[in-house]
Specification:
The protein is mainly α. The chain is built from seven helices and no strands. It is about 70% helix and about 0% strand. The longest helix is centred in the middle third of the chain and has 18 residues.
Length: about 120
């Protein structure tokens, strides 16, 4: 979904898009109508604005996102990004993604540790 796409793009940060496996995941998840190759070719520039895109997508959704769907979105973002980064900046970005969905930083940290 677009939530996972923008969340993973943001979580990976400006340097996390060089890995072929990550690029493949993001290509499979791209939002309809998005020029994914352009975004991934310019991932360094798009990574910083991806949180805004995630917030826009969340705000545009008319239906409430269930707790199960929220868990699956966050878990998918962590699965795509976790092997790429473990630094403090990555942890901060993951926590910011959680706030978009109303999840505390502590809960995100626990999810990340569980893998």
């Amino acid at each position: 979904t677009q939530f996972v796409f923008w969340g993973a793009l943001y979580a990976l940060g400006p340097d996390g898009h060089e890995h072929q496996e990550v690029r493949q995941h993001l290509t499979e998840l791209h939002p309809p109508g998005l020029d994914t190759q352009h975004v991934l070719s310019n991932a360094r520039a798009f990574a910083t604005s991806a949180i805004a895109k995630l917030q826009e997508a969340r705000a545009a959704r008319r239906e409430k996102i269930s707790a199960q769907d929220t868990f699956e979105i966050i878990s998918s973002v962590i699965q795509i990004a976790k092997n790429q980064h473990s630094d403090a900046a990555y942890q901060k970005r993951i926590a910011e993604i959680g706030t978009v969905f109303g999840i505390s930083a502590d809960a995100i940290s626990k999810m990340h540790k569980k893998g």
